[in-house]
Amino acid sequence: MRIVAIAIALSLAACSAVDVTKTAKGSYDPTDPNEIEILKTVPVNKEYFELGVVTATGFSANAVAEMHNAVRAKASALGANAVVLTEEGILKDGWARERWATGTAIRWGKAEY
Amino acid sequence: MTRSEFVGFILICLLACASCAHDIADRYYVSALPPRDPSSVEVLYVRPSRKFVVVADFQARQADEDFMRDKAAEAGADAVIVSRVGGLRAPGESRADQDSMSGYRGGVGHIVGTAIKYKENN
After folding, report:
1. Distance CA B79, CA B8 (A)
2. Is A22's CB within 8 Å of B110's CB?
3. Which tens digits make up the pLDDT trace of B34-59?
4. Who's near A105: CB < 8 A, 6+ residues apart?
5. Which phi and psi (to 5°) does residue A68 adopt?
6. Would the CB atoms of B47 and A29 count as touching at under 8 Å?
7. How many Cβ atoms sit within 10 Å of the Cβ of residue A57?
8. Over 70: is that where the pLDDT of A84 sits?
């Protein structure tokens, strides 16, 4: 029983997650996650507005593309067209290495409400 | 109370709290609307085609559509547009459009709701 409990705790501790907190006013229909762009710089020649804050945690240190797809999957429900990843890094805890990233989900055009 | 009764009581409290909404954040843009019966408030998952005004925005963890409907009813809204955002990523999922843990009601994701009032003369 103790071994089962430890196994469950370890598996939960290793779960990848993308936390999304909405900051925009109003609601926008979900977008196709395949079409969401991952950007590292803020667009300068295209009008956009912010939808929310996105934070990805618990990914393997070398799972960059996988983490980006997780961000796409989770930000699509907000109606995002892109996510600008403003910070990214690797957490070291003994032998463990975990990749994390944080950024802003954005939508092209003007806010409508 | 015996020791086992006390442990049982604590476990029941923890289980009850596991379903408690938290990280609740509300924003109100229109005030002075009379509250209404929650059963009269529509729950939507996309923007309706009718013209509307945004009355309020709600956000919470470990909550559900009924929670959002109740808040929208208190705010006097006609409907609430609901969406589940964020959450756990299942191991092995490689496609961007693959999200088997979408809608999981644990504490990781948020449920968001936008309370709306339909404009008259649509």
Report:
1. 41
2. yes
3. 999 999 999 999 999 999 999 999 99
4. A20, A50, A51, A52, A53, A54, A75, A78, A80, A82, A83
5. -60, -40
6. yes
7. 18
8. yes
